[in-house]
Amino acid sequence: MPHYFPPACEGCPARATALGFVPPDVPRPGQKLVIYGESPGAQEVALGCGFVGPAGKKLRIAELRAGLEAGFPREVGAGKAQPPVPGSVVHANTQLCFQPGNKYNPEWAEECLRRHRRLHEPLAGLPVVSAGLNATRTLTGCQMWSPVSHRGSWLPTRQGDFPWLPAWLVATLHPSFIARGEGGSGQDHLMPLLTLDLMRALEVSGPVIPRFRFAPAREVGEQLSAVSQQLVSVDLESYGGRPTIVGFKWEHGTSWSCWWDRDAEEVLRALASRRDLLLTYHNAEYDLNEEASVGIPLPEVWVDTINTSARLDPSVPLGLQPQVLTHVAGSVAWKGLVDHRQPFVVTKSVQAWVDLWSTVMTRLGRSPAPFAEPSLRVLAYNALDGWAWDLAHRVRERLGEDGREYYRQFMQPLQRPLLELGQLGMWVDEDQMAFHRRACERLVRMGQRILDEASAELRRERLDTLMTQVAALEEARETELRRHKEAGGKGRPKFSQAQELGDLRSSLRGLQKSTGFNFDSGPQRQELILSLGLPLKKGAKTKGPTTDEKALSALLKRLELGRIKPRKGVETEKAVKVLTALIATKQWATWLRNFLRPTGGADDVVGELVDVAAGTDDELEYAAE
Asked: Which of 103, 371, 393, 573 could anchor a disulfide with 99, C-beta 3.0 to 4.6 Å?
């Protein structure tokens, strides 16, 4: 049955391959939010509305958890369904047509938004959430955007191109990212992030950026001397191995930053000795160690928001930015403003962030000057780190009295002794470390031998195959040349399969030069596993099959349980031996490179590979040690 396409689709470059069209929901009185996705799928086309497939159901569950009304597709039997009853959210897509393979083309999406402007204009006036990287880039123009690192951020929209949009939107994860997950297993632990982002869009109408006060440290100290019984956040930036900038915040709406000097050191020394203020840091280990490097004593007690945040949603990374973007209303991602390897250099990536923040400040009616000059930009970056103060207050609210009491009774008393222990260092038995290093080296050699043998066998098979193919093509070339001469042709004609012959010869030369097996090489690991006839799954973050430790361990388990079998001619015992050696060798080599002490005793260290290796006298002697 042919699908309906409105007249505005005529002439659109996407129309030739489109398999269906799904317009935005028609807004109704009382609806509170618009969620823009990327493009509809087959189920959306079948029901004529957005977000009704597996990913859409995830989104609608998040809407319910955010306190919104949400309808779900209604089953009517025989695999058929009816569209959901409208809730308090309007669903739309930037690209309204369904393409083969769910293809999304940013240029088509922009063309679609312009052509179907009348369908989107009724959505004007409602807050907007963009779900997924593609929708966010199309609606905001922020090309450097990352859906995981920057979700929850307020962004300026392309209101000039799409006038029905509000000035700001909130970017979030696409529900298909949660539904699909790694290896198709789903990532339901990320559902709270989607829920919290929907709540953020209803909490405020746009960014709430603190005022920046760049002042001498002496002036900051005078201001702090008049403050009492308050939480004061402190954040240090160190470049070139020494403190460079220090930031403070003790009231809503204003962040102070100053260059490091003798006065800044005295201000911090005075704060460490005061009992009427409670200092807060995010990852206090870094800042307090920087203070200790210049002789500033540790305060008696402090609040570390990396620890308090850990008591909340486990799905949120503990870095300052993701915590701020999750909990602090009106916050905007800012960590890309400085490249810490060269803080005063404006790289191409940094320039994109400078452009974003210049747009943010201009749209808020404020001067973008702090981001135009490199030294001011670094100060502004530090001032934005002052959102740790707002985070401390927000986390305090969310923890409740029981959570705060737990932190005070159990976590806070441990902070100082643990930090002091880290500063003093720990005693290491060098002889024991040397023993484990020798163990790792021996195990790596044992595993490497197994892998080299398997790789050599594979190389011989491939050499035979390639040489046969090259010989066949050379014979075909000579046949073509003979026929050319018999037909009265002159010169030497171009061989019709010259490219293929050249590629085969190149592969043959490379294979003849190769020696040994590199277990750190992903392509070599893939080639070895596929040569055994074992299947590889596509990784969630990779374009091709993954051979990381998790994937290889799962593959080994399936092989041992008999759920999969190697190719004909390869014994299961041999495949288990090679796969075990691959996993273990990579493990031990990693520990060796990082000087880590392997867990377990000497017998455990040896056992894993001795079981799969053909033991020699030397290895058995080592095992007996």
From this structure: 103
Q: Is 562 left (phi over 0), alpha (psi -120 to 50) or beta?
A: left
Encoded amino acid at 332, one letter: V
Both tokens of 494, joined, read 């171009």
* Residue 2, pLDDT score: 54
Report the length, in residues, of the chain: 625
Enter the CATH code of domain 7-203: 3.40.470.10
Q: Is the dihedral of CA 560, 563, 566, 570 positive or negative?
A: positive
| E-state strands within 33-101 | 33-37, 74-77, 80-82, 89-93, 97-98
Select from 355, 378, 365 the least CA-distant residue to 155: 355
Question: Exposure of 370 by Cβ count < 10 A (0-12 exposed, 13-18 middle, 19+ buried)?
Answer: buried
Do strands 230-239 and 277-281 pair parallel, antiparallel, or not at all (unpaired)? Answer: parallel
Q: Which CATH number fits domain 211-424: 3.40.630.30, 3.30.420.10, 1.10.260.40, 3.20.20.70?
A: 3.30.420.10
- At 246 the three-state DSSP class reads strand
Domain ranges of the chain: 7-203, 211-424, 430-624
What pTM was computed for the model? 0.72
Q: Are 366 and 208 in contact (CB under 8 A)?
A: no
Beta strands in 538-609 (DSSP E): none
Instruction: Judge contact between 330 and 154, C-beta under 8 A.
Output: yes
How far is Cα 79 from Cα 96, in angstroms, rounded to an integer?
Answer: 25
Q: CA-CA distance, 307 to 312, in Å (whole number)?
A: 10
The CA distances from residue 295 to 242, 247, 265, 289, in Å, are 12, 19, 9, 10
CA of 561: how far to CAs of 20, 112, 558, 578, 581, in Å?
A: 45, 51, 5, 16, 18
Are 272 and 236 spatial neighbours (Cβ–Cβ below 8 Å)? no
Tens-digit pLDDT profile for residues 478-508: 888 888 888 877 777 788 888 888 888 877 7
Q: pLDDT digits over 80-107, tens only?
A: 778 888 899 999 999 999 999 889 999 9
Rounded Cα distance, 346 and 341, in Å: 11
Q: What is the mean pLDDT of residues 22-48?
A: 94
pLDDT tens readout for residues 216-225:
999 999 999 9
pLDDT per residue over 158-171, tens digit each?
A: 999 999 999 999 99
8 Å CB contact between 173 and 132: yes
pLDDT at 51 over 80: yes
Pairing of strands 80-82, 20-21: unpaired
Residue type, 2: P
Bridge-based pairing state of the strands 33-37 and 230-239: unpaired
Place of tokens 């996993």: 583
